[in-house]
Design goal:
alpha+beta; single chain; two-stranded antiparallel ribbon; seven-stranded mixed beta sheet; binds zinc ion; 31% helix; 191 residues
Length: 191
C-alpha cells in the first residue's frame, strides 16, 4: 500500500470526483489529504479506500484545545445510470443519503447536514424571527426529500405550483450562496 500526499487548496472537503480523477479510489489505496491556506496547514485526513467505503482517520482539535482522534467509515452507495453503468456515491452518516462531497468540521457530512442547517442557524437573531423563516423552511424540506444530487435542486413535485417552486428554488440558491461565502471567508479561499 502506498500513501500519496495531496494538497487540496480548498476548505475541508472530501470530493469523490476529485479522488476518482486522480486514481485514488482504487481498493486499498490510501491518501493523505492536507488542506492549507496561504502556506499554513489547516488540517489533514487519512483516507483508506475499503471495498465497502472510505475509512476516514483524522484528529480534531476541540474548543478546549484537546485533540480527539476520529475514525469513521463512510459507506459507498451505488445507483444505476441511464446507460447501464453505475454511479458511486458517499453515504452521509448523519442523514443516510448519497452525495458526492462531504464537508468537514468535527465530522464529515453532506452539504445538507453541514451547510443548509448551518446557513439557517447562522442568521442573525432578528432575521430568524422574521416571516422569511417560514418561507425558507419549505425550500429546505423539499431538498431534504431529494436523495441523490445534493448540488442540484429537485424537480418540481407534480402538485406544486410553478410559482411556489421558483420561489423555493431562489431561496435555496440564496442559502447555498450565503453558506459558501461563509465557509470561504473562514478558510480564506477564493472561489
Ligand atoms: Zn447528510
Amino acid at each position: 500500500m502506498r500513501c500519496g500526499a495531496a494538497t487540496c487548496e480548498s476548505f475541508h472537503s472530501i470530493d469523490l470526483a476529485w479522488l476518482g480523477q486522480r486514481g485514488r479510489l482504487k481498493p486499498w489505496h490510501s491518501t493523505k489529504l492536507t488542506w492549507s491556506w496561504g502556506g499554513e496547514k489547516t488540517g489533514s485526513i487519512n483516507i483508506l479506500v475499503q471495498p465497502d467505503g472510505l475509512r476516514l482517520r483524522y484528529s480534531f482539535t476541540a474548543d478546549s484545545g484537546e485533540k480527539v482522534g476520529i475514525k469513521e467509515l463512510v459507506p459507498f452507495v451505488h445507483t444505476a445510470t441511464q446507460f447501464g453503468g453505475r454511479r458511486q456515491w458517499l453515504t452521509c452518516i448523519e442523514c443516510g443519503w448519497g452525495c458526492r462531497k462531504l464537508y468537514g468540521g468535527r465530522y464529515f457530512r453532506c452539504w445538507q447536514c453541514r451547510g443548509l442547517k448551518y446557513a439557517s442557524q447562522s442568521e442573525d437573531p432578528a432575521q430568524r424571527h422574521a416571516s422569511r423563516r417560514q418561507d425558507r423552511e419549505p425550500a429546505a424540506r423539499l431538498v431534504e426529500g431529494y436523495h441523490h444530487a445534493k448540488w442540484e435542486f429537485p424537480p418540481k413535485p407534480s402538485r406544486m405550483r410553478w410559482r411556489t417552486y421558483r420561489r423555493l428554488k431562489q431561496q435555496y440558491e440564496e442559502l447555498r450562496g450565503r453558506w459558501m461565502a461563509g465557509v470561504m471567508g473562514r478558510f480564506g479561499v477564493k472561489a
